[in-house]
Each structure stands twice: as C-alpha cells, then as structure tokens.
Specification:
Layout: E1 3-6, H1 14-25, E2 30-32, E3 39-41, H2 47-57, E4 66-68, H3 72-78, H4 83-92, E5 97-102, E6 118-122, H5 127-136, E7 140-141, E8 143-144, H6 168-175, E9 181-184, E10 195-198, E11 205-208, H7 214-220
Helix pairs in contact: 1-5
C-alpha cells in the first residue's frame, strides 16, 4: 500500500520533500501532480525503478520516457540543444511542453528512444515538482498516470470522463497498490497531456497537440 504525502500546493514542506527524495533514491515509485496530468515517476538514475515504471505502464523498451528538469541549464546536461532550440525552450518554460531533443550520454539507454537516440524533457510549472527536482539534484521520470496502451499516451475514455466519474480519489485507488508513494497537493486531476515539440531539426514542429498548443502553433509551424 502506498504512503500518502499531503503537500502544500504553493510552499511544499521541506521535510516531506526530503523524505520523498530519499525514497526515490532508494528506488521508490511515486504518483504525483504535474502542471498537466498526474504522473507516475521515479529517480531517472535508478534503473530498477525505471523498469518498474515501464511495467506499470506496459511500455516496451523501445518507447521513450519523458523526464522533468528544473531549468534550461539542466536540460543542456541531458540533451544537445541548438541555438534555435534554446530560443524555443527559453520562450516556453516553465510550462506544459515536452521537448524532443538528441540525448547526451547522461541519459540512460532505458529512457531514450533507442533508434534516434532522442529524449523527451519537460520543465514543469508546478511547485512540488520544482522543489523535488531541486532537492534530488537530477531529473525524475514523468509518464501519464492513466494506464493505457495508446502510443501517444492519451488518457483512456474512462479517465476523460467528468471528475465525478473518474477523479483523483479513483486514480489514487487504482494505483495505490502499484506505487510506493502518492503525493497529494490538493489540486484536481488534470486531463490534458503536454504539447510535444520536436527540436531535433532546424525548424521546430508540433508532434502532439496538448495543453497550451495554441500558444505555439502559429510560430512553431509557420
């Protein structure tokens, strides 16, 4: 049964962040809020935990996993960012955007796309995530908590229903035996995934329209 941590939405308690950090470093899996949907995550550098996340989501090893970074400078450690990509990312972070970028050697093979050697990185606009990232000192995995085989990671029909039919309580109940930690910051469950922007080419392109896509559609695809 998962341990539940109630954290303040604006100023997450340092002692709780510290306990969660230590648990992740020891291999724990958590269910936690982001600025898009609730996500399943773990320490990027704990291989056994990453493997468990894949098992929970029924993801084969050729399906890349997105991870969260706290800043643009941190992204540059894990991805090769062109000048155009730098300008795009700087304009959009923090926010509900996933950037596809060529991975550096710091990205575990189990996380990246194996053929293209690319990775998906986000800088979330979410207090708990940013506090945990700062404490942990390295990225955390972020994959939608909705269990689905949809290649695009969209929430299944059940989860797209009204909150009365499938809200946070139902999500917690469905995953409490699969994860070690559940983080509750009093926010409601989101139902819109992030917008994915491909920055592996000279010209940015939108791969998936998610939350906030309208803000970038005109200049990213013109």
């Amino acid at each position: 049964m998962a341990e539940i941590y109630q954290v303040h939405p604006e100023t997450p308690q340092k002692e709780k962040i510290e306990k969660i950090k230590k648990a992740l470093q020891a291999g724990a899996i958590m269910l936690y809020p982001t600025d898009t949907v609730y996500a399943i995550g773990c320490d990027l550098n704990v291989k056994s935990a990453v493997e468990r996340v894949r098992q929970i989501k029924h993801l084969s090893n050729d399906k890349p996993l997105t991870f969260l970074c706290p800043s643009l400078s941190n992204i540059a450690q894990y991805a090769i960012v062109s000048d155009a990509g730098y300008r795009t990312i700087k304009r959009l972070i923090p926010g509900p955007y996933t950037f596809l970028l060529p991975a550096t050697k710091l990205v575990p093979r189990l996380v990246m796309e194996p053929k293209r050697k690319t990775t998906g990185i986000r800088v979330p606009d979410q207090k708990f995530c940013l506090a945990l990232l700062e404490a942990l000192g390295n990225p955390i995995i972020s994959t939608s908590a909705h269990i689905t085989n949809d290649d695009e990671g969209k929430a299944p029909a059940a989860a797209l229903a009204t909150e009365e039919n499938f809200g946070k309580a139902e999500l917690f109940d469905s995953l409490e035996k699969l994860v070690d930690i559940i983080v509750d910051d009093t926010s409601e469950t989101g139902y819109q995934v992030s917008t994915i922007i491909d920055l592996t080419q000279d010209k940015p392109s939108i791969v998936r329209r998610g939350l906030g896509w309208e803000a970038v559609a005109n200049w990213a695809e013109e």
